[in-house]
Amino acid sequence: MSVCIDVVRLPHPNSSAVGDEAKEIQREEESIDEEILGAVLSGAKLRSSLRALATAVSERRFADWDGYGAKPASISAMMYAIGLLKRLPPEAPEPDISIDPDGEVALEWHRAPRLVFSVSVGPLGELTYAGLFGGSKVHGVETHMGDAIPRAIRAGIQRVYA
Amino acid sequence: MPPSSLLLSVFVTDGLSTTEIHEHGERHAPRQGEPPKAYGVIAAQAVLHQKLRIDRDDNPPLHANVIGWPNEKSERKSIAQHLAAAASLHIRP
Predict the structure, then answer these.
(1) Residues B4-19: pLDDT tens digits?
(2) Domain spans in chain A, listed from the N-terminal domain onward
(3) What is the pTM of this model?
């Protein structure tokens, strides 16, 4: 038996499916739809983040942009930040993006004043992070991103939205 | 986050009304000829609680620098998050 799954049909209202096999097919359809929807949203999120990154770097590309001797946004840091954004888990919300006074790119996830996690991406790819989670806090540096986001960074993002 | 000099410029605004603070900022802290769009208020106690110090120089009037920031950037980020959580934002009407 062959089944044609209409993966772009969203949602699945009032399915008339009966029987175990039909229900299994419906569950598979819904699962595939969620996957595709997740990928589409994730792609849109990444494009939005990349636009925000480009804007931030463009607006802070000159020295002393803060009037207090700030360094221009680092292009190298921007490239590493792109790598980090691409590696974010699909469920991670879009971060706020800004430039630090030392030219590093800062990504911040913020849910409340005392529920925030921020990562500064340096020109050599180093990740300086700090998080405030109610009464507890974390901070530190990860010196190498590699192919995956360091565990401390991933955990920090997750704690904001736990 | 403090600037690269690690001197965070602030004004001591005890006893000033919101309008007076906006006027003071307009007079003494313009950016490219424009008045500040907003200001943040934080209790001195919250600053001191982070083991920072307030160095008042009154240049310009009521001016001070928040000093004593740690060398490690991750610590500075953490302190900045605490200060931001304790601060309130006042946008210029």
Answers:
(1) 999 999 999 999 999 9
(2) 2-161
(3) 0.81
